[in-house]
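Troubleshooting log. The previous structure file for this entry was overwritten by mistake, so regenerating from the original sequence record. Sequence copied from the archived sheet and checked twice against the printout by T.R.
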Amino acid sequence: MEIIIIGLLAFAGYRFFRHTSRTGKEAVRAYVYLETLKKGLPPEDANVMTEVLLSDVGKDLAINAMNMAKLEYATVHRGKQLPMIGYAYRQGMQTTMPFWYQKMALAAPETLGIEVAYGRISTITTDEDPQADEDMRKDERYVDFYETYANEVHRISGKSVSDPRVTDLMEHEPLHRAHTDGIDPLLLAAKYCHDHKIIEKFADYESYYAAFAQELRRFSANASEHAGWLARAHPNLIDSNFKQDIHPRLTALSFHHLVTEQHSA
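Regenerated output below.
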């Protein structure tokens, strides 16, 4: 067990809030409502349209709305959901959320992203602003990071490609921090699944070991180093993690930490 603990220490700062579908759906509702208002509908009609569109989360329209909302929160609002929800409330969005939640959302300060997307400066363009262009490129890199992370969590969970991704309604702030700090999204996905008991099953030890060996390649500088590390990997330790359903990527990470510490000692 010690081998996995070493590796998990590297991710201590990236624990995620557990997914809560009600607050996540409220974030999607806020996005759909504000986009509907933006098209010229009055608040009463926008509320009706929002409820109709999101009435069945399994429908293509609802799934598309969820994906678009996810992208909007990631690229424009830096993952901050409460300011967007509070702004939607102020613009007349109806809600069944508890009073304390409404009060918290309404207290969230309005962000520049909201101003740009829906407020007084929504028509201003930044085509000639180099800093804005750089921010956009950074956002694109974050979206690539997020998509890699979300798709891997979805794959490990064993869901079909048509199922909504469990990560799509999560807060993005911890992910932004991980992206900024250069954390590998595939490692982060394995850690998230480990924390939430989402298990990728392997038929036998041989298939698990093969996956471990493949994952270990990401940490080795060359084939020779990789072969040397594999020769030092004790089968009993790997077998123990296999029996505990610890993802081979995390086993490889913790083994890498162990080898590195031994080398520097």
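DSSP finds 14 helices and no strands in the chain. Archived copy saved in two places this time.
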